[in-house]
Amino acid sequence: MHILLLLSTLLGSLFAQVIQDQFVFQQPDVNGMIPPFTYEWTQLLEQFHNTLGSKNTSKDDLACLYPVPAFECEPFIWNDAIVDRDAYHLRPNDIKSVIAIGDSISAGFGMISGRPPFSTILEYRGKVFSVGGDEGEYTIPNFLARYGQDISKGAPTGITLPLSRGKQLNNAVSGAKTQELNAEVSRLIRMLNSEKYKAYKDEWKLITVFIGANNVCVLCEPPVTTLPGLADADIFEENVRQVLERIRTDVGKSFVNLVALFNVSSVYEASRGDPYCEFVLDPSHMVICSCIQGDEKQRRAADRVVNEYNTRLEKLEKEYKTKDIMEFGVSYQPGFKQFPVGKYKQSYFSGVDCFHPNKCANQVMSILLWNNMFSDPEEKKKEFSIETLEITCPSSKRPYIQ
After folding, report:
1. What is the per-residue pLDDT across 308-345, written as a single tens digit (0 to 9) for each?
2. pLDDT at 126
3. What is the reported pLDDT for 223?
4. Most confident listed range (64-68, 212-216, 309-313, 325-329)
5. Which of residues 342 and 166 earns the better pLDDT score?
6. Which of 50, 137, 269, 277 could anchor a disulfide with 354, C-beta 3.0 to 4.6 Å?
7. Candidates 3.30.1490.190, 3.30.505.50, 3.40.50.1110, 3.90.1150.10; correct CATH number of 27-388?
């Protein structure tokens, strides 16, 4: 009995330490509001959902508004006589690991909704569009697996607690801004130097960088007399450039997707008419994203910042393509800019916070990113319809990731 009591005490202490390591504890700000992506914030969000979630009219992960097309791309052999590949002549079977750095969207925060009490705010990393490894999911690693590559060792499966610092090669952290990307890359470098992942160090890696939403979301937090440095486009650009340089020098042999952001105003428009979402996005209740929850003028200002961020990502792509670096490629992938998130109301948003993409959205996002990777620059800019979405397959005419 004494042994059981001792074990219970030890396990309790260990669990408390795990919780302390996993979550960020923070006091309310000067306005009495709890900052997003803190432990207290997730608890409040959970409370709202468990109390009022029945008022949420969004669909859960089992009932997507439109079915996604089957992934039926057939693998084949390219006889292109290129022995020593450079970063802009990579084929799907050249990629040996898939990596993500970014924020809560890449961490899969709140992706599956309508399952109270606690599972509503978990991070579903195994289902994330860019890096998830759960069997049967629409993700880039699972698409690449059709080409004979076993990349399961690095692709995360399952879930993590909110605010975890990554799982396997998904290094995204909920709440991260571009200022925190360096820490994510440092973790990635440590992992690639570890015994578990060192085999990937000298192989080709596909890295998806999706960041910026949290930088935009601080734009409208009081005081709003000047543009906060956290949201400044010049600082955004420089932070991403520094991270790209670290990947180039310390990670090596990589092709980096710089993924465009979608406008935040459409998230607000999609919430109108849903009683639960209107409650959660009421700024007097909690902070989800200050600019979304502000007035129309603030939302339009945030959209302009998003457009400028995307312009800077495109600028970085052009900058690196002129450097003629054999083992490092950068490509701006604009597909998400054309995602009409407001058109479908809550069908593609998390049922817990009405902000993050749900599983249905992640399926669409995986196809958009895949299509961007095998389309020429002009095709990438074309509008698309979710109702008629198709998958672009690599071919002998277009075999390379770009």
Report:
1. 999 999 999 999 999 888 999 999 999 999 888 889 99
2. 97
3. 59
4. 309-313
5. 166
6. 277
7. 3.40.50.1110
Query: Does 4 score more than 70 pLDDT?
Result: no
Tell me the per-residue pLDDT of 272-297, one tens digit each, with 9 for 90 and over. 999 999 999 998 889 899 888 988 98
Is residue 218 within 8 A of residue 231, CB to CB? The reply is yes
Q: Is pLDDT above 50 for 141? A: yes
Contact call for residues 362 and 288 (beta carbons, < 8 A) = no
Contacts of residue 122, Cβ cutoff 8 Å, sequence gap at least 6: 110, 112, 159, 160, 161, 162
Dihedral of alpha carbons 139, 141, 145, 146, sign = positive
**Confidence (pLDDT) at 399:** 87
Kindly calculate the radius of gyration of the chain based on its CA atoms and give it in whole angstroms.
21
Token pair recorded at residue 284: 């007097």
The sign of the CA dihedral 373, 126, 350, 162 is: negative
pLDDT for the residue 383? 86
Q: What gap in Å lies between CA 289 and CA 283, rounded to an integer?
A: 9
3-state SS record for the chain: CHHHHHHHHHHHHHHHHHHHHHCCCCCCCCCCCCCCCCHHHHHHHHHHHHHHHHHCCCCCCCCCCCCCCCCCCCCCCCCCCCCCCCHHHCCHHHEEEEEEEECHHHHCECCCCCCCCCHHHCECHHHCCCCCCCCCCCCHHHHHHCCCCCCCCCCCCCCECCCCCCECCECCCCCCCHHHHHHHHHHHHHHHCCCCCHHHCCCEEEEEEECCHHHHHCCCCCCCCCCCHHHCHHHHHHHHHHHHHHHHHHHCCEEEEEECCCCCHHHHHHHCCCHHHHHHCCCCCCCCCCCCCCCHHHHHHHHHHHHHHHHHHHHHHHHHHCCCCCCEEEEEECHHHHCCCCCCCCCCECCCCCCCECHHHHHHHHHHHHHHHCCCHHHHCCCCCHHHCCCCCCCCCCCCCC
Tens digits of residue pLDDT in 112-133: 976 555 557 899 999 999 999 9
Domain ranges of the chain: 27-388
